[in-house]
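agent> Task received from the user: take the single chain below, predict its 3D structure, and emit structure tokens. No templates, no multimer pairing.
agent> Plan: (1) validate residues, (2) run structure prediction, (3) serialize to tokens, (4) report one or two observations.
agent> Step 1 OK, no nonstandard residues flagged.
tool_call: predict_structure(input=
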Amino acid sequence: MPISDYIRQLRDKVGTDLLLMPCAAAVIRNNGQILLQRRADNGRWALPGGMVDPGEEPAQTVARETWEETGLRVRPVKVLGVFGGARHVYPNGDRAEIALTVFECEIVGGKLACLDGEATELRYFEPSKLPEFLVKYPEGFFTAQRQEPFFYWRDEWVPK
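)
tool_result: status=success, residues=160
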């Protein structure tokens, strides 16, 4: 589903004005490679994932969106990072800024296939040879072995 009923209702009220959208994405590894989807709307590569629906937990979102987009059933095992701040303008003029939670996920079932039309291709990539993403991830995010989730921080963000 390209746009949820919830977002459609909001867009009916606010038009193309900026919306802050909570989202979740999955890092799915197979033999050290990372699964990406080529988005049907812009042809760019992205992690499987999407917007958190009202009443839904981000971990639930990543399981649902991954199933819809890849045909894989996944279980989130840890939070890899939390990102935001990047603004996007969609081809129709809608403006959005996402707050993205990225989960490491394990495959628990399913068969790899583009199910909902949001992806035109699914492919595993070597972490050192990933294509450019719409979302900017920090250097080394997909190759570093971190124990704690990654997030951007600047000391000047502490209120004075």
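agent> Step 4: summary for the user.
The first strand starts at residue 19 and ends at 30.
agent> Done.
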